[in-house]
Structure formats: structure tokens, C-alpha cells
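We both want to read C-alpha cells more fluently, so let's practise on a single case. Would you supply a protein for us yourself, any chain you care to pick? Would you write everything just below, so we can both look at the same thing?
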Amino acid sequence: MLSGGHILLEGLPGLAKTLAVKTLARAVQTEFNRIQFTPDMLPADIIGTQIYNPRETSFEVKKGPIFSSLILADEINRAPAKVQSALLEAMQEKQVTIGEKSFALPELFLVLATQNPIEQEGTYPLPEAQVDRFMLKVVVGYPNRSEERQILERFDVTDSAGEVAPVAEPADILASRRVINRIYMDDKIKDYIVSLVCATREPQSYQLDLHDYIETGGSPRATINLKTVSRCLAYLAGRGYVTPDDVKSSVLDVLRHRLRLSYEAEAEGISSEDIIRKILDTVPVP
């Protein structure tokens, strides 16, 4: 939310993804819409369409659920490519076109798209070029035993939503973004970010024996996102400067979905996280 980017969330059912976004919307006092993706969806189900008004003998624009500050795109990989592209275009351009008119989306606009990692039937995997538009890919697992116990204690009433105390307004978030843009980043940190991304493209240049495992490395979007997320982490830590630890804390979520692995890597059970950790261990830290 602070960075202005979007999130691809991968997790099993029942891990409170919808509740997390709904709670966030209440905390910052903004609008929230949930869109359940299905194989029979059309782009108009997301962005809206023109409806004929017989009384006025003209077409009227009926806006879709995308016109909200917080969007939960549930199981995005269940919809066909043309529906996915309609959502991703809105994410990139921050506007949608219905008929001959273009409509701007809210300035505070965040899409959290989820996909289920265990079900493959009836799904349409996101192409690499579309996945690259997500700033972060976050993998959510089951809570541990103590966390599960806390969940049991908190959800002891029939109304599981509970009360959420507002802590900010959309104007506060937008003001924070302006502060984040001014957070200092040393040239050595910038060089470190570039080295990490370039190591995914040309690992042999960094004495990494990974050439057979990576088909496509991180794009320039990865470099930009890594810089932005690092600044956000520094801001949340109350610092006016970025440290190498901020960058290292950002790398997994920024890069894990941008690496296209080869058949050899899949055959040997090597994941993108394994490759990123090896790069972190090899590239010199400033």
C-alpha cells in the first residue's frame, strides 16, 4: 500500500486472505471489493460496461467492482487470459476504458490477487509477462501451533469480523508515499540492487554456477521494485536511509515470481527461492 504496487498471494484456502484485506480497508477507512474469478467471467464483469437506457434512448456506463481502493482478486488463475489482462491493465495504467471514455481509478489503489497452489484443473496459469506486473509475490503457509491457539481465542464469537479501529486515512497513506520517495539510498546500495538482479540474468559473471537452472532472470521492473520496497521497509523501521538488510529482506518477495526456471531445475527440485538465497550468499554486501 505504501509503495503503490500490487501483490500476488499464494496460499491454501482458509488462511484469512479475504479477512486481511477487509481489515486493512477498515483500518485505513477506504473502500473494499472482492472479485471471485471463475472460468465463465468476462472483462465487463470487472471493469463494467455500457447499458442501454430506453427512456433516454442512450447508453449509460455501469462501472464494475474494479472502482474501489482495495481489490481482492480471488483465485485469479481461474479466469481466462482476457479477463486477467483486463485486471492487469487497470493495475498498470490506473484507469479503464469503457466504450469511448476512460475513467481514472482511485489514487489509493491496491490489488491483492490470490491463487491456489494445489488445484490445477480448471485454472489458467498467469503468463510470465503478466506475473511480472505484480510488485510482490507472497507465499502464505499454515500458522504454527501457538498462532493457531491465538486464532482459536480471537474467533470465539459468531460474528468473526470483529471491530477494527481506524488508524489512518487514505490521505495519510498518500502523504507517506511522498516521504518514502525522499528516503536516502546510497550509491553502494543501488549498485547492490543492480548486482542482485543482474546475477539472475548472468550468474556466471558473479561466479555462480546457475546458468543451466535459469531461463529468464529478473526484468528492470524487478530492479525498480526492489528499490521501492527497500525504501518502504526503511520507512516502517523509522529510518531515513536504506540499509543492505532492507534490500535482503525484500529480495525473496520481489524476485521469486520473476525467475523462469529450466527443466533441469524442476527435475532436481530446485526452487526460485533456493536460487535467490544462493545469489544473496554470493554477491558481496556493501
Q: What stands out?
A: The mean pLDDT is 86. The first strand starts at residue 7 and ends at 11. DSSP finds eleven helices and eleven strands in the chain. Residues 7-168 form a domain with the Rossmann fold fold (CATH 3.40.50.300).
